[in-house]
Structure formats: structure tokens, C-alpha cells
Amino acid sequence: MILAAQLSDTHFDLSARNTERVEAVMGYLADLPRRPDVILVTGDITDSGTPEQYAQARTALRADIPVYLLPGNHDDRANFRTDLLGVPAATTPINSVHRVGALTVILLDSSVPGEPAGLLGEDTFDWLLAALADAPADGPVLIALHHPPKPLFSPVVDVIALADPGRLAAVVSADPRVIGVLTGHAHSPVATTFAGKPMITCPSTASVLGGAWEVAPPHRVMDYAPDPAIALHVIDESFSLTTHFRTVAMGGWLAEPPA
Ligand SMILES: [Fe+2]
Ligand SMILES: [Fe+2]
């Protein structure tokens, strides 16, 4: 069994609040009797992409478990590289591939500089096909990106989702090794299918964005009251994907029912 924890939309903004929420989540993961094999962070790491926000993220997301990150629409590729990843600045897409035991995790950069909506560019598609060609022939593959490639009945996010999703769908449906697609961006835990495979959207550690039945702008859009939440993905020996969503209570663990 492989256990992959997913955090998303941490939105580091130099406030103590968003940092403390990520620290609570990282502490929760570090204290698990069976710790995750990998931690994935699926974009909107920072709120506005400044070096100071990435420095805050870099400290809070430090772990002795591998942490792999991809950018979202609130991120800045150059600062993401220099101040979070510690690599030279560049504005090309930040795609990466990682092996976690038998699992291959492919992280795609769906951000479009200066735009809230997402798109996988030509260079990213070429890179994805090469990454799949290099992946083990008999191992499972998870593909992660920030922007959901289909509508989620989320009025705020559906208008800034992934453009041209059909191209990604063709790749996902054609490759039997792809066991699922992971996204962020929606600030809501969502389970659906995409191209015939499971598609899981991770909640945000920072806030909750309502569905079509909840949102009533301008006063009722984002909810900052709920505690941070994450997704925990289990990949078993038959390479099926099972996901638990977990709220990490800021008040800590409660082993007995309250009086
Ligand atoms: Fe976000
Ligand atoms: Fe986003």
C-alpha cells in the first residue's frame, strides 16, 4: 500500500492564520502511526506569488517525507522556483515526475501567467507524453494539476477551470496505467470521474468555496470558518485508488466523546 497525502490551496499570504493551519496539517501527518509516503501540494501555494510568501511556505511545508509541489493561478513561476524549490528562476512551466515505490506521480503546471483560468500548453503536453513513455510499463500513474479539467458545479471555479480539457482526457483514457487525476483550485473536496477515471479535487487548507447550491455573491462565497482539510490517497496492490478526506481540527485530537 502506498499512502499519498494531498494538500492544496495553502494560499500563504504572510498571515499567521494560513501558516498555522498548514503547520497543524503537517503536524497531523507527522504524527500518524502510518505516515504518508509522499505529500503532494497542488497549487495556489501562495496568495500572490511574492518571495516572502514562498519563504513562509518553504518553512511550513518542510518535512522528512518527500514533498512535491505544483503551481496554481495565484503562484509565480520564477519566485516559485527560486524561493520555494531553490532552483534558478525561469518562467517555463513547472512540470515534474516522481517515483513513489511502484507509483509514478506526474505533476503538471496548468497555470497561465497573469490568468486565473488554466491551460496545459504544447510544451507541457510534449513533456507529459515523454514522462509517460519513461514511466514503468506495469506501474500505476497519478496525474496532478491545479485546475479541474471539468465543471464541478462550482460557480466561481467553473468559469476559470482548465481550458481544452479534451486533450488531457484523450491521454488519460488511452493509458491504462493512469489510475486517477488529482486537482486543487476548487477549495472543496470533490469526487467525480474524468475520461473514465477517478478525479479527486482536494480541499484547501485555507478556506472553503461553496457549490452552486451554497454560493450567493457578494456576501456568501468563501467560508473561512471551517478547519483545514486534506485528502489521503491509498493506492493498493491492485492499483486501485481510494481517497479519504480529512479535516484537521485546529483544536487538536479528541480521543473521548465530549461530556
Ligand atoms: Fe486557491
Ligand atoms: Fe486556484
From TrEMBL:
Signal peptide residue numbers: none
Domain annotation Calcineurin-like phosphoesterase: ranges: 5-189
Cited SUPFAM superfamilies: Metallo-dependent phosphatases
Alphabetical UniProt keywords: Hydrolase, Iron, Metal-binding
Assigned protein family: Belongs to the cyclic nucleotide phosphodiesterase class-III family.
Name the record gives this protein: Metallophosphoesterase
